[in-house]
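Input (structure):
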């Protein structure tokens, strides 16, 4: 029997386009489990393992998948490709998992992973606060109705615009990342008020999924070092500022951390600093923010951070360390971003070309590094899947590439797809909800994809596709 496949190659119809003082640095090999170290010579077979897909994912007899009760082919046909879909139910369930794990603490969603008005609304309804890094993220959230007092602003180089927006809108806390920010923030606080601040401390702990996303050591741009005394000096200066209220310490060790041990080590070191602050300044800090960086699995069989185990062991260490130091237990804050948004997202691409050259089969799709730069940046490996029809051809190793003018524009190397994959086929890439669209660029003026929410059998547009009119209207040079 011959299967007729004539999927649309065009983008969406117009109607959808509108709408320590420790001298050493802790380095444990088990902390450093990064994607680039996982290099398999054999292709990963396309099988029925849906463990890294949204929890609502189900198979259809024709080879299609549904997410949130909506067939992926339907999303592609209605909204065009490339497109991102986000499972609202999956996002909400992950928010609830964090709230259950940290019932006495505060959970902030890290907006940098992915932010739109709907996302801000969902996490607010589920009881999470928000962690933002710019005036843009802050404005989007607050104008959606997100309570500013539940927002934390941080970043290593906050612009005057960032700080003005934070103070004007009344954010709950600002994380001080460098000594130069202290006077700037203190001077900008309106007369008669005080701004709550945290200090970002670099605890000297190496953890994270790639060298470019490890931020807990002194050899990168973030925070104030515990090893050289910078953090202690900044704290003393902040305590001398009448317009600033130091309420706690902050740290962020890196991203894609799958072991609990680095977080436990960070608690031990930061409680030690809290004890010194109490001894030297008579100040007891009520908050300890451990940041985020909670690792997720991008491919079946990969490790992910156990959030329940993290909460249990961090809480135990916090209570034990505080008891030993004679301190009350501070309120614990965590900032998951990827762990909430990442597994809830799926990217959809149409195959535009199939080329066999130099012993490699290249499957080129209508997107690439402009909508997902992570493989080029970090060597991240994904497992694309053919959806929309069931092929009987044997799987063959292919490299899925993008449409951009870069040899490094590769979305997935050495993955298995049916041997008869051809132009017009639809590929779906799971775990695409975080650091894809938020890091998207305007390279080649291709246009950023839309974002579609799926829930209970319905799909709706959240963010429209970037259009040719957008390019024309922004260019005012003539």
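Output (sequence):
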């Amino acid at each position: 029997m011959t299967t007729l496949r004539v999927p649309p190659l065009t983008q969406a119809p117009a109607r959808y386009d509108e709408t320590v003082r420790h001298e050493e640095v802790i380095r444990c090999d088990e902390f450093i489990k990064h994607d680039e170290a996982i290099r398999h010579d054999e292709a990963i077979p396309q099988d029925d393992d849906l463990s890294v897909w949204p929890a609502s994912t189900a198979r259809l007899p024709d080879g299609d998948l549904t997410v949130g009760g909506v067939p992926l082919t339907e999303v592609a046909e209605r909204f065009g490709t490339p497109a991102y879909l986000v499972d609202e139910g999956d996002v909400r369930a992950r928010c609830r998992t964090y709230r259950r794990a940290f019932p006495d603490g505060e959970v902030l969603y890290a907006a940098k992973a992915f932010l739109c008005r709907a996302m801000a609304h969902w996490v607010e309804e589920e009881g999470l606060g928000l962690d933002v890094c710019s005036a843009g993220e802050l404005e989007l959230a607050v104008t959606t109705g997100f309570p500013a007092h539940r927002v934390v602003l941080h970043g290593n180089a906050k612009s005057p615009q960032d700080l003005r927006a934070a103070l004007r809108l009344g954010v709950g806390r600002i994380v001080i990342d460098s000594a130069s920010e202290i006077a700037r923030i203190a001077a900008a606080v309106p007369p008669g008020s005080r701004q709550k601040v945290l200090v970002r401390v670099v605890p000297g702990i190496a953890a994270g999924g790639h060298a470019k996303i490890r931020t807990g050591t002194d050899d990168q741009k973030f925070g104030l070092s515990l090893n050289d005394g910078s953090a202690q000096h900044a704290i003393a200066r902040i305590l001398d500022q009448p317009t600033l209220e130091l309420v706690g310490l902050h740290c962020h060790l890196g991203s894609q951390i799958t072991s609990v041990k680095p977080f436990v080590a960070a608690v031990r070191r930061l409680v030690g600093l809290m004890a010194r602050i109490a001894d030297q300044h008579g100040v007891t800090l009520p908050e300890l923010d451990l940041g985020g960086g909670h690792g997720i699995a991008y491919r079946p069989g990969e490790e992910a951070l156990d959030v329940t185990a993290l909460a249990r062991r961090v809480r135990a260490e916090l209570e034990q360390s505080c008891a030993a130091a004679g301190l009350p237990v501070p309120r614990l804050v965590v900032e998951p971003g990827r762990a909430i948004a990442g597994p809830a997202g799926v990217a959809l691409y149409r195959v535009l070309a199939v080329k066999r050259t130099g012993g490699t089969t290249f499957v080129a799709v209508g997107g690439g590094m402009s909508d997902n730069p992570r493989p080029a940046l970090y060597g991240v490996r994904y497992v694309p899947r053919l959806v929309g029809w069931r092929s009987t051809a044997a799987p063959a190793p292919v490299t899925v590439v993008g449409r951009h003018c870069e040899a490094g524009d590769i979305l997935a190397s050495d993955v298995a797809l049916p041997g008869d994959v051809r132009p017009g086929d639809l590929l779906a890439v799971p775990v695409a909800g975080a650091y894809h669209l938020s890091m998207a660029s305007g390279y080649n003026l291709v246009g950023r994809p839309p974002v579609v929410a799926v829930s209970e059998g319905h799909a709706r547009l959240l963010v429209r596709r970037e259009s040719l009119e957008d390019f024309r209207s922004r260019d005012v040079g003539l």
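Notes: The chain has 13 helices and 23 strands. Residues 135 and 162 are 4 Å apart (CA to CA).
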